[in-house]
Amino acid sequence: MRVLAAMSGGVDSSVAAARAVDAGHDVVGVHLALSTAPGALRTGSRGCCSREDASDARRVADVLGIPFYVWDFADRFKDDVIDEFVDAYAAGETPNPCLTCNEKIKFSALAQKAAALGFDALATGHYARLDDGELRRAVDEDKDQSYVLAVLTADQLSRAMFPVGDTPKGEIRAEAARRGLAVAEKPDSHDICFIPTGDTRAFLGANIGIRPGAVVDADTGDRLADHDGVHGFTIGQRKGLGIEAPASDGRPRYVTEIDPDSGTVTVGSAARLDVWSITAHRPVWTAGTAPDGPFEAMVQVRAHGGLAPVVATPAVRDGRPVIEIALRTPLTGVAKGQAAVLYLPDSEQGDLVLGSGRILATDSDPASGVRPDPVASGRNA
């Protein structure tokens, strides 16, 4: 096969490209220039897409003996990822830009260009596995990235390759060292790649501006503090609320609700963070079609953690498809804009990704969770 290997300049994508070469594929490496003003160097483990990263990727390609190119996707990245990220925070949501990047850049814009150039598959260094076209968790659960890949359609998955998903991260580094790849000990990227300082609030403030509002108490309605914009808050946040005095009971307060229209940020006790049901829109089913009725699964609402057993039901609300998710046990800190990813547990082959949706609404009423009469378990796809 002709394989386009997306090479970020990190150890994972480098070994992924090397394994694609070992498998006998005709491999071409490509580095995506995603910043309109890339820095010369990375800031430790923060940021990516610097000139240093591009140079690291090129050196790996030279070692592997494959052609290498740098493709400029900066404008598309700004429009589809950065602007959407800013808009979502301004609307009181908490988005995951890595998920958006996979959905709109790597497996959409890049994959489309690859197909147009005659490539059969796109290989990346993501930690996930494909089993007969089905997306599963990686062997290394601590590094698993199936959550941020759950937005991929069946067609996109059919053209994807994840060569490192069957190997723990430590072994990937050891393999890179054996191959003589200089990136073997390169630090992993953390935080948001287009905010190399790590200061998300400052980045959002610079892009959104001051939009003053109030922090109010969920129980009394009292105004506790003023703020410069809802973009500085997320559901479940405890620190940085600007509140001078503790609650009357001495317990910590958390952000429990964000109203972008009025600019009101509501804070309350930890008990107010419990969520018993979730409505997710923009559903994507990795099998290509929605299940034909309610089914039991596990839902994950954050890239790491936030996992609970549920009964999920494909439905239609206000004329658009959604997933109604009733939880068996509550989750806390569930924010609009996050992804709700549904898994079918499988201890032998690794959890299977069934589908995903963007969280549109939540309900804290225990009655909205799973009723005592559970639906028959199993996958009705």
TrEMBL record:
<feature type="active site" description="Nucleophile">
    <location>
        <position position="101"/>
    </location>
</feature>
<keyword id="KW-0067">ATP-binding</keyword>
<dbReference type="GO" id="GO:0103016">
    <property type="term" value="F:tRNA-uridine 2-sulfurtransferase activity"/>
</dbReference>
<feature type="binding site">
    <location>
        <position position="125"/>
    </location>
    <ligand>
        <name>ATP</name>
    </ligand>
</feature>
<feature type="active site" description="Cysteine persulfide intermediate">
    <location>
        <position position="193"/>
    </location>
</feature>
<keyword id="KW-1015">Disulfide bond</keyword>
<dbReference type="Pfam" id="PF03054">
    <property type="entry name" value="tRNA_Me_trans"/>
</dbReference>
<dbReference type="InterPro" id="IPR046885">
    <property type="entry name" value="MnmA-like_C"/>
</dbReference>
<dbReference type="Pfam" id="PF20259">
    <property type="entry name" value="tRNA_Me_trans_M"/>
</dbReference>
<feature type="region of interest" description="Interaction with tRNA">
    <location>
        <begin position="143"/>
        <end position="145"/>
    </location>
</feature>
<feature type="region of interest" description="Disordered">
    <location>
        <begin position="362"/>
        <end position="381"/>
    </location>
</feature>
<keyword id="KW-0694">RNA-binding</keyword>
<dbReference type="InterPro" id="IPR046884">
    <property type="entry name" value="MnmA-like_central"/>
</dbReference>
<keyword id="KW-0820">tRNA-binding</keyword>
<feature type="binding site">
    <location>
        <position position="32"/>
    </location>
    <ligand>
        <name>ATP</name>
    </ligand>
</feature>
<feature type="domain" description="tRNA-specific 2-thiouridylase MnmA-like central">
    <location>
        <begin position="202"/>
        <end position="268"/>
    </location>
</feature>
<dbReference type="InterPro" id="IPR023382">
    <property type="entry name" value="MnmA-like_central_sf"/>
</dbReference>
<keyword id="KW-0808">Transferase</keyword>
<keyword id="KW-0963">Cytoplasm</keyword>
<feature type="site" description="Interaction with tRNA">
    <location>
        <position position="126"/>
    </location>
</feature>
<comment type="similarity">
    <text>Belongs to the MnmA/TRMU family.</text>
</comment>
<protein>
    <recommendedName>
        <fullName>tRNA-specific 2-thiouridylase MnmA</fullName>
        <ecNumber>2.8.1.13</ecNumber>
    </recommendedName>
</protein>
<dbReference type="Pfam" id="PF20258">
    <property type="entry name" value="tRNA_Me_trans_C"/>
</dbReference>
<keyword id="KW-0819">tRNA processing</keyword>
<dbReference type="InterPro" id="IPR004506">
    <property type="entry name" value="MnmA-like"/>
</dbReference>
<dbReference type="InterPro" id="IPR014729">
    <property type="entry name" value="Rossmann-like_a/b/a_fold"/>
</dbReference>
<feature type="domain" description="tRNA-specific 2-thiouridylase MnmA-like C-terminal">
    <location>
        <begin position="277"/>
        <end position="359"/>
    </location>
</feature>
<feature type="binding site">
    <location>
        <begin position="6"/>
        <end position="13"/>
    </location>
    <ligand>
        <name>ATP</name>
    </ligand>
</feature>
<keyword id="KW-0547">Nucleotide-binding</keyword>
<comment type="function">
    <text>Catalyzes the 2-thiolation of uridine at the wobble position (U34) of tRNA, leading to the formation of s(2)U34.</text>
</comment>
<feature type="site" description="Interaction with tRNA">
    <location>
        <position position="338"/>
    </location>
</feature>
